[in-house]
Amino acid sequence: MICPKRTAELLELHLESLKDKDPAWEIAVSKIAGRGVFTTRKLKRGDIIFRDIPILIGLAARQEDTLNSCSICFKVLPDTKFMCRQGCALPVCSVCAKKKQHKDECALLKSWEPIEPDVANSVIIRLICVARAINLSKEQRDLIYCLQANLDNNHRTEVRNAAKCFNKFPTDKKLIELMNRTVAVLRTNGFDETADRTNDNQEFFYRALFPLFAIVNHDCVPNSYYMFEDKTNYMVLRASIDLPEGTEITTTYTKLFTGNIARHLFLKMKKNFTCKCPRCSDPTVS
């Protein structure tokens, strides 16, 4: 298990811009699974536990009718002429096309030589969330490596499929490993829209990784709920019940009203663990 202290140090660096001098959370050893997030003081129902900044975020691009959105600001663009004119194969608005972030990403993807630079390709648009890990700082990349990643037989598939969309996709082993690891972390603890996680929480239409939230462990009867700030896409996690000091914060990876069998199958297949929370351990609950 990665040291909770080191994880906390990297998270504090990541969240430094929020300037929270008295956080209501801390990272500690969990009885549920390795590390967890715990309260540092009493919290009332509805109190903010933490705000989290996405370390990676991009378009989910799961449906063809959503591909005409700017890859930077996510604004929906006209149905025609929304692709970057420089040939990087990314959709971008006229304002964001001038921003440094897009110029850097444009140069990166152009160096890989997209096969069809003027065609909106969901594989490439989804990949940009992963590829953004390349331009992170060392500390930010270390934070990604601190997060749980289920390295199953499929976590390399996305990068392999993306490679087929370019003439000169990188072959550097460290770069490929970074992207594969990022995919695995996103698959394990990231958001890819909220189709499979929506319960009482607000819907979220992007692909993103919130590193502090990624440490929060699962319980089928969670004691927190999350929302997203529209202007910033920051996450806000609130207490769903009164919480004493030292309580482990939990969330749910499934829908609240899903039956035991369906929840167990989902958690085993998608999250690679068997839940042993009180709800799952109660033989009277179906």
Automatic annotation (TrEMBL):
<dbReference type="InterPro" id="IPR001214">
    <property type="entry name" value="SET_dom"/>
</dbReference>
<dbReference type="InterPro" id="IPR046341">
    <property type="entry name" value="SET_dom_sf"/>
</dbReference>
<feature type="domain" description="SET">
    <location>
        <begin position="23"/>
        <end position="254"/>
    </location>
</feature>
<protein>
    <recommendedName>
        <fullName>SET domain-containing protein</fullName>
    </recommendedName>
</protein>
<dbReference type="GO" id="GO:0008757">
    <property type="term" value="F:S-adenosylmethionine-dependent methyltransferase activity"/>
</dbReference>
<dbReference type="InterPro" id="IPR053010">
    <property type="entry name" value="SET_SmydA-8"/>
</dbReference>
<dbReference type="GO" id="GO:0008276">
    <property type="term" value="F:protein methyltransferase activity"/>
</dbReference>
<dbReference type="GO" id="GO:0008170">
    <property type="term" value="F:N-methyltransferase activity"/>
</dbReference>
<dbReference type="Pfam" id="PF00856">
    <property type="entry name" value="SET"/>
</dbReference>
